[in-house]
Amino acid sequence: MSDLKTKYRKFRERLSKKLHKLKHVKAINRNVFFLRQLFLNNYVDTLKNDSRYQDNKCLIKFGQKIYSQNEEDGMILEIFNRIGTTNKTFVEFGAGDGLENNTLALLLNNWNGLWIDGSSRSINNIKDHYKSVINNQRLKVVEAFITKDNINKLISENISDKEIDLLSVDIDGNDVHIYNEISVINPRVVIMEYNAKFPPPIKFCVDYNPTHAWQGDDYMGASLSYIEMNLNKKGYKLVGCDLAGVNAFFVRDDLVGDKFLTPYTAEKHYQPAKYYLVGAYTGHQGTYASVEKCLAACMKIECE
């Protein structure tokens, strides 16, 4: 019995030491995480203070992350501060799980629209947590793998207005091909992810493949110059890109006026890939509980 007690005591001592080391490692990892966030936020501030971005017509200085991947939220709000809104309607495909995309912040600001995504898990999470705005038709949610053949039907079955304020495209591959096929809406603003691996004047675009799935390599989407060329033909001007080199912002020709930084070219507005900026937090990580609270507050204000 004495020998058994000794073995048990030694086992507890070893376990205690391992737990102590584990707590120490977790503390180090937590501190490293906070240091990384501090570095990223300070670096973003340094970049935004660059003299290149101080012109009031430049969108970079207005960047702010609420629920977007980077600082797209602030840039979107600034665009509409300049050109105004009509029906506050958006369409976003590649909307993800509803906690990080280009239109969630707009939804919290009494916009309405359509989210399309090919992930069953993401769509189910959205339907589970956003029941209030789905039930009152402010948000339509569709699970679908988008192709040139189905995109117009997916939109027209859920959006009745021809002119909408915003279209956001992010499907990591066929973005331009799908966009060129859209005929049922006439967005005032278009946001599209570009492949920053290829700077201007390179015109790169993946071949259309209805079953394309991004493999995490550089064979995805299209270069900024290629997207610019296509959207110019559709009547849009490039007015900016986010600092991380992820999204490009286009405004319809009849709305641009003298409100944005010229020239409206890829050479002027291109941002190289700075994907290490992705993941910088503003405040704590987003949760469905917080979004639901905000949505409930919006609906209460609407009813008063």
What's the short version?
The protein has 304 residues and is an alpha/beta fold. The chain has helices at 2-48, 72-83, 104-107, 120-129, 131-135, 151-156, 175-181, 224-233, 253-256, 266-269, 288-303, and strands spanning 89-93, 112-117, 139-143, 163-169, 186-193, 236-241, 247-252.
Characterize the structure shown.
By secondary structure, the protein is α/β, with parallel strands linked by helices. It folds into two domains: 1-49; 54-303, Rossmann fold, CATH 3.40.50. It contains eleven helices and seven strands. Helix 7 links the parallel strand 4 and strand 5 (186-193).
Topology:
Blueprint: H1 2-48, H2 72-83, E1 89-93, H3 104-107, E2 112-117, H4 120-129, H5 131-135, E3 139-143, H6 151-156, E4 163-169, H7 175-181, E5 186-193, H8 224-233, E6 236-241, E7 247-252, H9 253-256, H10 266-269, H11 288-303
Parallel strand pairs: 1-2, 1-4, 2-3, 4-5
Antiparallel strand pairs: 5-7, 6-7
| Count of extended strands | 7
Spans of at least 5 consecutive residues whose pLDDT stays below 50 are none
CATH structural fold name of the largest domain: Rossmann fold
CATH class of the largest domain: Alpha Beta
Shape: globular
Number of domains: 2
Query: What is the first-to-last residue Cα distance?
Result: 75 Å
User: Do you know the CATH architecture of the largest domain?
Assistant: 3-Layer(aba) Sandwich
Q: What fraction strand?
A: 5-15%
- Cα-atom Rg, whole angstroms? 23 Å
Mean pLDDT over all positions: 88
